[in-house]
Amino acid sequence: MDTLSHGLYGGVLFGRKNRRNFLIAFLFGVGPDILSFGPYFVLALLGVQTFAREAGGRPDPALIPSFVHGAYNVTHSLIIYAVFFAVLYALGKRSFAHLTFGWPLHILVDMPTHARAFFPTPFLWPLFDVQIDGIPWSTPWIFFPNVVLLIVLYSAWWLSRRRRRGVQ
């Protein structure tokens, strides 16, 4: 799934209480992609790296630096998230912990929407090398329902906030 959608789902599902919570939940939703691909894009923008993109097609994963693949494994692992969550819980950050649920949601949504050909989701890394050969999120019958679902969720949230405030 695209990075922005991950953040929007995180925000609307886990951060509705206030703007701060929304921002935190949004950031945890986009975090796995930003932390894995972000440094690569920054380096490419600075001219240190070159974009591994061929004209008219998706990038060849073999041309993307190994540090991106390593970071992707870490950020797209439910095992790593479980350890992170356990640490939060042990530190008594239970009221904050639910704001991080955008991260595992990101992973769960990526599993069926990433094909093995391009960054399959290593959801059980580092224990197991299990991946699902999903349908790319850019496929129209995945992409457009995603947009519609986001519109429905945000519309419902907006309407519920209006009703609670007594605005007709």
Please characterize this protein's 3D structure.
There is one protein chain. The protein is an all-alpha fold. It has 7 helices and no strands. α1 packs antiparallel against α2 (19-45) and α2 (19-45) packs across α6. It starts with a helix and ends with a helix.
Gap from first CA to last CA:
35 Å
C-alpha Rg (nearest Å) = 18 Å
Can you give the helix content as a percent range? Answer: 55-70%
- What class, by secondary structure content? mainly alpha
- Runs in which pLDDT lies below 50 for 5 or more consecutive residues are none
Number of strands: 0
Q: H/E element string?
A: HHHHHHH
In brief, what are we looking at here?
With 168 residues, the protein is mainly α. It is built from seven helices and no strands.
Q: Which terms would index this structure?
A:
single chain, 168 residues, mainly alpha, globular
SSE arrangement:
Layout: H1 3-14, H2 19-45, H3 66-75, H4 78-90, H5 94-97, H6 102-113, H7 140-164
Helix pairs in contact: 1-2, 1-6, 1-7, 2-3, 2-6
